[in-house]
Amino acid sequence: MRTRAAVASVIASIAVLVTGWQLGAAGTLDQPQAVVTTSRAPAPSTAGSSPLSDTAVAPTASPDPSTATDPVAAGQSSATTTAADGTYTGDSQRTRYGNVQVQVTVSGGSITDVTALQLTDADGRSVAISNRAAPVLRAEVLAAQSAKVSTVSGATYTTEGYLSSLQSALDQAGL
Questions:
Q1: How far is 54 from 43, CA to CA, in rounded Å?
Q2: Where does the record place Low complexity bias (predicted)?
Q3: Most exposed among 80, 130, 140, 162, judged by the fewest C-beta atoms under 10 Å?
Q4: Is 93 exposed, middle or buried (CB count within 10 Å of its CB: 0-12, 13-18, 19+)?
Q5: Which domain covers residue 146, as residue numbers?
Q6: Is 36 among the domain residues?
Q7: Rounded Cα gap, residues 104 and 148, in angstroms
Q8: What is the DSSP letter of 52?
């Protein structure tokens, strides 16, 4: 009986993945989608999302682009940025294994550098984990140009502190 439940769970997971892939491949990217994640701060609830999953994607109603007043909904770019060039230091974030603080450099409205000023250091293992996670997080942030990146496996506390500090720096920069 336990095997049947496990098989049913795997099949359900595959169905969700295939459906999401098909939606993306079918060119539905022009429709706004709501994403709810539970790995960080709670996001507003969205119809169709499951409280048991890490990430649920539910298509939202797509207004007629010709009548939309929102430039993004009308298919227009929202590339206007109020970010000021400079270097911004994020708030120090306390974690179970020590504090984490990062500094971000913004140039031309883009994130050009991220420097870890302080990483978890409660013990040798914390230091090793932080030293492994920091370059991965830096690369992901530079590629994504935001603090919305995946958690580094095995470095959850470091990742959460890093991204929280980064977001406070990005808020200061106007990004």
A1: 12
A2: 73-92
A3: 80
A4: buried
A5: 86-173
A6: no
A7: 15
A8: T
Please give the pLDDT value at position 13. Answer: 58
Contact between residue 90 and residue 114 where contact means Cβ atoms under 8 Å apart: no
In this prediction, residue 23 carries a pLDDT of 43
62 belongs to a structural domain: no
**What distances in angstroms separate CA 57 from CA 20, 43, 96, 146, 157, one per listed residue?**
8, 12, 31, 20, 25
Domain-embedded: residue 1: no
Output the pLDDT for position 26: 41
For residue 94, what is the domain's CATH number? 3.90.1010.20
Please work out, in degrees rounded to the nearest 5, the angle formed at the alpha carbon of residue 149 by the alpha carbons of 143 and 154: 120
For residues 21 and 7, give the distance between their C-alpha atoms in angstroms, rounded to a whole number. 21
> Number of folded domains in the chain?
1
Asked if 92 and 99 count as a contact pair (C-beta separation under 8 A), the reply is yes
pLDDT, mean of each 10-residue run, the chain (175 residues) = 59 53 42 37 42 39 45 46 85 96 95 96 95 96 95 95 97 92
Minimal CA–CA distance to 101: which of 124, 129, 130?
Answer: 130
